[in-house]
Amino acid sequence: MNREDNQNPTCVNIKLNPLVIVISGPSGVGKDAILNRMKERRYPFEFITTVTTRRKRANEIDQVDYHFISVEEYQNLLQNDGLLESANVYGNWYGVPKASVKEAVARSKDIIIKVDVQGAANIKKTLPEAVFIFIMPPSIEELSTRLNRRSTETPADLSVRLKTAETEIKQINDFDYVVQNHRNEIDAAIEDIMSIVKSEKCRVKQRKVEL
Q: DSSP assignment, residue 62?
């Protein structure tokens, strides 16, 4: 399968329902790197930007990596049913704006949502027909190396994240697919994701997400 086929993953000339693809996995596994590469190469998806109360890191861009908002703004969204899912992760709130997802589905756009494992579990309760993909590290040791290289956590925070990752990996059976993200092989991970998308497009019984 060549790259052009991967970017246009249709199977047969039938009406295809839009897919909601949930990308998840442990902190530091490379979810952002994968999606940033897909955005750079203009893969045909609507990438939903998560809102968060976490502080913006030096290398992050507001409205691109996340919508960085105050706790008050977040609570207002939550109380007014403005979030598809909401989770408190390492002391910060993260949520997926419902309006962005509904608008994309209405335009028949395939959607990618990046969330942590807790967020994926929440979405599955609301949208069981979404496609859930778990991004797996080659090993816990490699994950530790990536988190250390990121230099955004204290040693105590790093220890918590690694213990959480071990627990999250045990939840892999709650997902539809797994993609292993090896070091310096982002393109291979993207090819695996696009193969999954094409397989879903070729299903006789199409998934139908209802919001």
A: B
Residue 159: inside a domain? yes
The reported pTM is 0.88
Residue 63 within a domain? no
- The pLDDT tens digits of the residues spanning 109-139 come to 999 999 999 999 999 999 999 999 999 999 9
E strands, the chain, are 20-24, 46-48, 51-52, 67-68, 83-89, 92-97, 111-114, 131-136, 177-180
Output phi, psi for 135, to 5 deg: -90, 120
Determine, yes or no, domain membership for 148: yes
Domain count, the chain: 1
**Placement of tokens 């040791």 in the chain:** 141
Q: Vertex 189, ends 59 and 116: CA angle to 5°?
A: 55
CATH of the domain at 141: 3.40.50.300
